[in-house]
Amino acid sequence: MSDVGRLVDILNQPSVTQFLSTKIPSPYTKEDATWWIQEGSKEGFIRAVEYDGELVGCIGVNPGNFEYERAGEVGYWLCSSHWRKGIMRDALRQIIALTFSNTIIERIFACVFSSNLASQKLLLDAGFRQEAILQRAIFKNGRFYDSHIFAILR
Known about the structure:
The chain has 5 helices and 6 strands. Strands 1-2-3-4-6-5 form a 6-stranded mixed β-sheet, sandwiched between helices. Helix 1 (4-10) crosses helix 3 (30-38). The chain has one domain: Aminopeptidase. The N and C termini lie far apart (34 Å). Strand 3, helix 4 and strand 4 (107-113) form a beta-alpha-beta unit. By secondary structure, the protein is an alpha+beta fold. Keywords: Acyltransferase, Transferase. Belongs to the acetyltransferase family. RimJ subfamily. This is Acetyltransferase.
């Protein structure tokens, strides 16, 4: 609960949220952060990302359902003041290892906005392969984006 204020600060940064799902409310409130800490972060395989003892991001793998139960979608965000320091690269490598060693998931995938070149590079650097580009698959803030699909297998 001590990270509520930090969550609110980070998830109200447009540079952080521009390529995130609209499942994350905007503006992001203390109530949203409290719900996330108490309930939302308990679904899937979620971890806080810390740097020098401070919350700077979040990463998680959400398993699919039914016939997709052996696949999980990875998602992440990082405070813009901590970009380009290798923090998310390390977090991504750790969540891959944790997921493959502690769950039945065989495939981790990510869906990335076409404009999010940094995330695409991050995934490739972490060993993901690009599988597809789904044209005009994402619609956010009145604009279409292609969805770039990346995956890594156990």
